[in-house]
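Task card 7
Instruction: Convert sequence to structure tokens.
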Amino acid sequence: MRRTPRPERPNLDLEARPYNQPRRPIACYVTDRRSLGPGPADPLPNLRERIRLSIDSGVDWIQIREKDLSGRELLALAHDTVSAAKRAMTTHSTPCVYVNDRLDIALAAEASGVHLGGQSLPAGDVVGWCRTGHASPEFRVGVSCHTMESAREAEQNGASYIFFGPVFDTPSKRVYGPPQGLDRLGDICRVIRIPVMAIGGIEEANAADCIRAGASGFAAIRLFQERSKVRLAEFLERLHAGSG
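Output:
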């Protein structure tokens, strides 16, 4: 049943928002320890500090995307992140933690879910396995999508949410083709009935534009890794308050 929208802050123009768009935009930090800049030979301590800083600043989701870590290292990082998120519960909710690709690690660390990319296991197989008693009912399966067709397929396969992009130009997403743009993002959000997270080139200046287009939130690397705790906290406070 379609929910009746309540009045919302007019500057985000959310009266026409999709019914699946949450009332509080979701900000997701996608980790990338290799891009944190010059530092020690082992960048993991820097990454752990950045994760803690992002949690303290008010981030909603953290996706651990460290594909080259060993299973032991990734499990330790995921477990530490889940523990930090639980300790830092805000007045809104405990930050959600997702693990990229590794379903086994996500389950072992008691993460909120697993995020699947183009080279991951098929979403339908993962969802089906999880929904037959192998994971809690709250465990989520997210999928990265770059076309309307892939977004529809993810939804049909039972995905909990999708990442769609790249919305704007960004070096890390050029392999997936040219920027999709806000109009295409809006098309996806109007058709797909599960939450859509915008990704690719998201910055302070354009994050609210993605929300206006209908996205449930956004995911980013550099936005979280290149800002001080104070600046990031101020940005997230504005975003959550509806002033982007």
